[in-house]
């Protein structure tokens, strides 16, 4: 049963991302990526990461992609559709990407991993994923957490400074 | 057999909830017109049926039979999908709300987070509607509305952290049960006020309805829409109102719990409380003037954000020192 | 129980699609979107490992990756917007003012 849902979600993600990479219209590509993120959130729930699924929809689909859509609207989509979409060295690029994927698979798919363990809680029960994640995040990973907030502050300031219109004269 | 039976029961529950919600949303349009009319000392719809009760059916028929205009240079796929993207998140939230002790479609241990995440997808529909119409006014209205919704979504999320800290769980059924003695609105009045104002802004209601005000030149992001697609936007607004009041009832007003010596089933209490909040929404529309866009943003970021942060801080302090 | 190799294969396929998108498209925004896809493929791998060994470290890393992706998207789009002010479209092979 789980395997069936995994195949459904995986097919959705791969289909939506293929759709994204091949679209000429950037808005259609961004919307296909949102669809891929929604399927991915479903996959995360299947893997027992419920909080991460919520974060994926809230932050990635509902925040970052809205940012992308706003920026795309500020650029001229009508002009960019009529230009050539693909690089001159596309074939070579595809070959390089396939080589990369083969390498990744050779390293990761080798096996020999320790055996699987189950989560000590069931989906839907409290205390569950969120409580345990909170415990780990604020004790073992407190320092990276604070550093991440500093990083977000720096990125926010940097984005404002970069995109500000320079007032000359 | 267990899986199939469970799936069938879930489907029946979904059908019941969706059916009731769609019916109530349709009659909410009628109710709004009647209530605003009576507040303004006039009668409202009176012709269609007894005291205008068949007015929603007449409206629905009219919108259904109108010509479906798609502008020539509009992005056809996105133009058609946009109304759906606004309506669907409102309906999906109903799947985690506990209408009674035993009647809920599902119960997940990240229920509140799920609600926040899914309602943040509503912005997409508005942005896409404004973009796909290929019209300057639509795009400007959509960008304004989206910026307003995005800002106030943050305050919505932060205002929910207060009750969350008191209940100790994201599971909506646990939050409702934690209000057994005292409703959270008495413990967290500040959070409720911020939540209410933020949900007014989220649903584009007065006093935050600049994107679709009647005195504006055009109708904002749904300018180019006609017929059934316009009906979708219209219904989506009322569906959003119902959903935010339902969440407010679950989080602040004790959900399906009522006064013990009046024997009513749980979901009747739930609907009654929702009704009171929806009446306040409609009352505000008849009473308040409209905020200008920069006043709106200033209210949000300079007034409500410090307020909601102070609420979280105070709740945490009180909980640490006394509980 | 879903075997670990399924998650790893999915991650590798998504990484391949994202890398192909980065290397093959001319529009700068498409490249940024493909980078987001690559980051998500890494998320899938992390979540797969977290599920295999019931260790929350994978999920915590995935949360940090999402935070870093948000920063990178913001700064990258700011750069693109400021580039777009002078010229009308952002195809990466035309951004060549520093070329010798």
Automatic annotation (TrEMBL), chain A:
Statement: the UniProt record of this protein carries the keyword rRNA processing: no
Catalytic activity as recorded in UniProt: a quinone + NADH + 5 H(+)(in) = a quinol + NAD(+) + 4 H(+)(out)
Main EC class the enzyme belongs to: translocase
Main function: NDH-1 shuttles electrons from NADH, via FMN and iron-sulfur (Fe-S) centers, to quinones in the respiratory chain. Couples the redox reaction to proton translocation (for every two electrons transferred, four hydrogen ions are translocated across the cytoplasmic membrane), and thus conserves the redox energy in a proton gradient.
Enzyme Commission number(s) of this protein: 7.1.1.-
Subcellular location: Cell membrane
Protein name: NADH-quinone oxidoreductase subunit J
UniProt-listed Pfam families: Oxidored_q3
């Amino acid at each position: 049963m789980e395997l069936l849902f995994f195949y459904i979600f995986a097919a959705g993600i791969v289909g939506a991302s293929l759709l994204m990479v091949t679209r000429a219209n950037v808005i259609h590509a961004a919307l296909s990526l949102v669809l891929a993120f929604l399927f991915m959130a479903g996959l995360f729930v299947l893997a027992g990461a419920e909080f991460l699924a919520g974060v994926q929809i809230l932050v990635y689909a509902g925040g970052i992609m809205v940012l992308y859509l706003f920026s795309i609207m500020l650029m001229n989509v009508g002009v960019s559709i009529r230009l050539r979409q693909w690089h001159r060295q596309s074939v070579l690029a595809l070959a390089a990407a396939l080589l990369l994927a083969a390498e990744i698979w050779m390293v990761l798919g080798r096996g020999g991993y320790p055996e699987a363990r189950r989560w000590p809680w069931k989906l839907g029960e409290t205390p569950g994923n969120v409580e345990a994640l909170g415990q780990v995040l604020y004790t073992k990973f407190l320092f990276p957490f604070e550093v991440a907030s500093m990083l977000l502050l720096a990125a926010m300031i940097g984005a404002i400074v970069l995109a500000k219109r320079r007032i000359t004269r | 057999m267990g899986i199939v039976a469970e799936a069938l029961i879930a489907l029946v529950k979904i059908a019941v909830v969706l059916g009731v919600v769609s019916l109530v949303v349709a009659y909410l349009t009628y109710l709004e017109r009647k209530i605003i009319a009576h507040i303004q000392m006039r009668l409202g719809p009176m012709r269609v049926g007894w005291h205008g009760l068949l007015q929603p059916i007449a409206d629905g028929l009219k919108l259904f039979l109108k010509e479906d205009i798609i502008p020539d240079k509009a992005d056809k796929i996105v133009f058609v999908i946009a109304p759906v993207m606004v309506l669907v998140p409102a309906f999906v939230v109903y799947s985690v709300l506990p209408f009674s002790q035993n009647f809920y479609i599902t119960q997940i241990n990240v229920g509140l987070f799920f609600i926040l995440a899914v309602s943040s997808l509503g912005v997409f529909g508005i942005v896409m509607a404004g973009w796909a119409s290929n019209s300057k006014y639509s795009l400007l209205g959509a960008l304004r509305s989206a910026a307003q919704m995005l800002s106030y979504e943050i305050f919505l999320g932060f205002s929910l952290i207060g009750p969350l800290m008191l209940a100790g769980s994201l599971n909506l059924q646990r939050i409702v049960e934690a209000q057994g003695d005292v409703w959270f609105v008495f413990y967290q009045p500040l959070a409720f006020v911020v939540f209410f104002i933020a949900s007014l802004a989220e649903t584009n209601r007065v006093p935050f309805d600049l994107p679709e005000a009647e005195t504006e030149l055009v109708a904002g992001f749904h300018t180019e829409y006609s017929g059934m697609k316009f009906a979708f936007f219209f219904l989506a607004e009322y569906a959003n109102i119902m959903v935010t009041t339902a969440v407010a009832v679950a989080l602040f007003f004790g959900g399906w719990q009522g006064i013990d010596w009046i024997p009513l089933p749980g979901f009747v209490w739930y609907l009654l409380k929702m009704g009171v909040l929806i009446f306040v929404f409609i009352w505000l529309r008849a009473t308040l003037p409209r905020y200008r866009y920069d006043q709106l943003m200033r209210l949000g970021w300079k007034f409500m954000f410090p307020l909601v942060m102070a609420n979280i801080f105070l709740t945490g302090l009180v909980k640490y020192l006394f509980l | 129980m879903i075997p670990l190799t399924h998650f790893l294969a999915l991650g590798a396929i998504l990484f391949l699609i994202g890398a192909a998108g980065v290397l093959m498209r001319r529009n700068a925004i498409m490249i940024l979107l493909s980078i987001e896809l690559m980051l998500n493929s890494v998320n899938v791998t992390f979540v797969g490992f977290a599920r295999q060994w019931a260790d929350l470290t994978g999920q915590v890393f995935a949360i940090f990756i999402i935070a870093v992706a948000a920063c990178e998207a913001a700064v990258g789009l700011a750069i693109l917007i400021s580039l777009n002010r002078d010229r009308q479209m952002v195809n990466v092979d035309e951004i060549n003012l520093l070329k010798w």
